[in-house]
Amino acid sequence: MKKIILGTVIGTIVLGLALLFSPSPINSAAWSPPIAPKLANVTEQNNLLVSAELLAKGNIYGPEDIAIDQQGRLYGGTQDGLIKRVLTDGTVETWVNTQGRPLGLHFDNNNNLIVCDAYKGLLSINPEGEITILTNSADGIPFAFTDDVDIASDGKIYFTDASSKWNQANYILDLLETKPYGRFLVYNPTTKETTTLIDNMYFSNGVALSQQEDFVLVNETWRYRIIRYWLKGDKTGTHDIFIDNLPGFPDGISSNRNGRFWVAFPTLRLPTVDKLHPIPWLKNISAKLPESFKPKPIDYGLVLAFDEKGNIEGSLHDPSGETLKEISSAQEHKGYLYLGTLYNDRIGRLDLKNVAWSN
Prior knowledge:
four-stranded antiparallel β-sheet, single chain
């Protein structure tokens, strides 16, 4: 028994020394996050998401974003590279396989599905399922994590490359390194040019145009904030902070084009991560830990609604996360809110008539 205990102690010491002195995959920067706001007033905890209808449950895995075609069919990309389609009768079918990881989805005016594929770049898929790569780099730098998209009435495609260094499989390393590898870009389908609008972003994520298309919002996930980029007016070509110090990690954002934005949060703020951020050497060590020791999301469902001035209008919660958790997108369509998730096996559909403040 003593030999077993001694061997265990020695093994633990050796493992600890190896962990301490082996190279880290990251070179982290220090950051002191603001104190996380409490869920109170308009963000106070409720159970509104618990009543959501669950579509395609058990037949779709990780539909990060949801798009709806003119026939009312739902589309969602999965972890294994498929884009699945949910028919109006609830039948789930595989539509195409991008051979990557489809994330943000949005139909253009020609009924092509524009896809941000984390590994393949910005794609266009026509109604017959034929895939075309529109762009996969900008300024000589390849996209490593093409993420989310919105399309203006003039056809311009606004999208994000969340990180030019870390791909989707290593997003936790991007979080721990705390360096601005993200970009916000626009693709012009007429000229086929890709232009960087904002660089040096801390995980640029969801994209949504305003009602008048005078500005576009971009979620900066690791900074718990939303950035506004001006497309019209005296501030054209500049950007500022739309809202800061959010209660969670903002992922997808959408506009109902009637003055409201929906922002999805896959998790609330993680106290452990906030405590780690000011200590680079500790984050460097954390990056070397096995996946089971890295930060995990809190099982919680959260969506916030904002007006175009940055005021929070209301919130939707599932405190247990049993119905909907890790919500990554919220898309309003004909009186319903469709909810995508990062790793769950369902699409949520919430009847907004049951949400008093949303009417």
